[in-house]
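FAQ: What does the model actually see?

It sees only this:
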Amino acid sequence: MSRGSPVPTAVKILQGTMNTTRESQKMMAKPIKDIPTPPEALNKLGREFWYRQLYELNKIGLISDLDLPMFEIYCNEMSRYWEIQEILKDKTKLILDPNKSESILALMAAGRNSSMIAYKIASQFGFTPVSRSKINVREAGGIKKKDIFDLFIR
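And it is asked to produce this:
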């Protein structure tokens, strides 16, 4: 019988399903305390993604120093995608010769590639609706009265 994919320990802690006897042997990365400055390689848009998304992940403790290089790639791909979209917005209105259409197709392929890379990374960080629905974060005050019935339904 196959089991589902492993759930990160930070998610188990947030859900309240953490069993310390099972988790004692696993390597745990400590969440970052403060949001680090973005890498110099990121452009302005990439830095905006860095601060916006990292703030949300840090707020619930789902990002560590080990995640930052992959997170940098995510920010870079997102900024690259939106830059390509801005270029295409102006160029697709009027195509005069076949050479320009080939460059537009190349830009569209690059934009599609960047969006697919960003999507794959985003799903790992919980940025997509499906991946976010798998993370059940409880508030600091514990279980609310209306949440007790949810526990019986699941």
